[in-house]
Amino acid sequence: MSPSAALGNTEHTSDNQTQNGSVLGRRAMHSEGEQREEGEEEEERSADEGFMGMTPLLQAHHAMERMEEFVHKMWEGRWRVIPHDVLPDWLKDNDYLVHGHRPPMPSFRACFKSIFRIHTETGNIWTHLLGCLFFLCLGIVYMFRPNMSFVAPFQEKIVIGAFFLGAILCLSFSWLFHTVYCHSEGVSRVFSKLDYSGIAFLIMGSFVPWLYYSFYCSPQPCFIYLIVVCVLGLAAITVSQCDFFATPQYRGVRAGVFVGLGLSGVVPTLHFMISEGFLKATTIGQMGWLFLMAVLYITGACLYAARIPERFFPGKCDIWFHSHQLFHILVVAGAFVHFHGVCNLQEFRYMAGAGCAEDGAL
Ligand SMILES: [Zn+2]
């Protein structure tokens, strides 16, 4: 945000974005409970008039001072939520969320303090912050399981560790992105790229233990499928680095890229079903859980892309139950269902022992 925007100086602004920023700066300085006194308003108005008569150097100095004052107020958490239509362009994402947005806050401290305030991102932050802590604890417990519960402890802990790493990276990039999204255009751009890359990491990490156990006795196709999902995942990460990818117009494309990456699992699934038969696939192959996971992820992606339910109730889902929040919850649920399926596959491998039958994949 430019200093003039932070100052709340509505004069000398030519473009809309700066004007919006000015309104925000002015509005954001008001705290929720304590309205600014009229005398203070008067003082600011006369300060603005005085500002006009200054030399450029003095104006710059004055601007810096007021920028500092503005940032200081942000640190103290003195801001209030604002409507969508006064957001600067880079913060405008979903116009069905009419009110309750954080203003631009060029201070990481203010952004992190906003985790404990109620606004459009509160649900997005907490769903993945709690999800991240949950998978972190689960991962630690799993990694410390006694080695005698595995047939190949080292390998198995590495492949299940890949799933936990993917899940933890995805969820932590996500809650961090939603926390600092309102910091500034540059910061939001960098973190949105991390957020999208995190989804690719989760998908790639989920494939690793699933392919390992499903093709335990056929290492060659297992290896080929792993290479393919890694190449596709890296391609998704590469496309996420383009600036256009994060824009609201590409919402559907984004959902499509990640659903497509997840659906690349259809090929190994069919391979498994053909080689092992439908019955084995749905019992020991855990296809039911995988199917449920796919339903959860795809439902989440559809809600996200179509912005359901807020498109039917604009302004009614500003804080709770908007599409992005539901999508976050479905991602955590999908990852947990996948983990459950992988645990069942692991258990089967343990019961069956390390040996392989003549021509079985599993
Ligand atoms: Zn998100």
Can you tell me about this structure?
The chain folds into two domains: 3-75; 108-352, Rhopdopsin 7-helix transmembrane proteins (Up-down Bundle), CATH 1.20.1070. Helix content is 66%, strand content 0%. The protein contains 14 helices and no strands. It is elongated and about 90 Å long. Mean pLDDT is 85; it is low at 1-41. The structure holds zinc ion. Residues 124, 174, 178, 324, 328 line the site of zinc ion (ZN). Zinc ion binds next to helix 7 and helix 14. Residues 37-46 have a biased composition (Acidic residues). The chain crosses the membrane at residues 125-145, 157-176, 196-215, 222-241, 253-275, 287-306, 326-345. Keywords: Membrane, Metal-binding, Receptor, Transmembrane, Transmembrane helix, Zinc. Zn(2+) binds at residues 178, 324, 328.
Secondary-structure map:
Elements: H1 3-7, H2 16-28, H3 38-52, H4 56-75, H5 108-113, H6 122-143, H7 153-180, H8 185-214, H9 219-240, H10 251-263, H11 266-276, H12 278-282, H13 287-306, H14 323-352
The protein binds zinc ion.
Zinc ion (ZN) binds next to helix 7 and helix 14.
